[in-house]
Every structure is written in structure tokens, then in C-alpha cells.
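The data are quoted verbatim here:
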Amino acid sequence: MSKKQLYTLEYPVRCSPTILYEFLSTPSGLQEWFADKVDERDGVFNFSWNGSNDTAKVIEREEEKYIRFHWSHAPAEEYFEFRIEKSEVTNQTILVIKDFAEKREIKDQSMLWDYQVKDLFHRLGN
């Protein structure tokens, strides 16, 4: 099995970090754009899509800055992360997504994130 590698995607977003963080870190926010149904208990999120389920544990977070999840089925060093940054030049809010994928799958995974982030932006009124 080939080793997955970390890749990063950046999306400029027109909304406050406070509002964006809610969509990235709460079950109700994630359910708006990331999964069909989301529940959380003791830092473990259960995600449902079209009848399939997956769980991810919050391994790091800083309010209004970032949240990092670890899929229960993934190797220990892998994670996915939503980070909120401010552009030094334009002062614009930037959503940074970090995830792992096999090299040949990064393009497809990036397109999937693009699709989901478009749904997030729709919910945010962007």
C-alpha cells in the first residue's frame, strides 16, 4: 500500500472567523455542508453520508483558529484539519484544509473538497 501524503487547500472566504469556526467545529455546523448527519460525544464525531458512517476524534483545537480530526480507521500520523487564517496583505479570511491522500488521488480528493467547500460557502452566503 502506498503511503499517503499531506496536501493543503486554501479558500478565501467572506465571513468572520467566529462564524466560520462554528461551521467547522460543531455537529450542527458540519451537518450543514460536510455530512448528512453529524453527532458528537466526548470529542468523537460520528459522520453519516448516504447510509455509511465514519468516526473522527478531535485531536487538537484552538477556538476560532483551527480544529484537527483523526479518522478512527486512519494511521495515527494522518489527520484532516480546518484552519482559519487572515491574509496579511488583504486582511481576508482564508479557510485552509489539510488532508492526506495517496499521490494519485490528491486531484480527486481536492475536487471533492472543492465541491464540499462550495456547499459551505453557499450556506455562509458567499
Observations:
- The two ends are 39 Å apart (CA to CA).
- The beta strands are 5-13, 37-41, 44-49, 52-62, 66-71, 80-86, 93-101.
- Residues 9 and 114 are 9 Å apart (CA to CA).
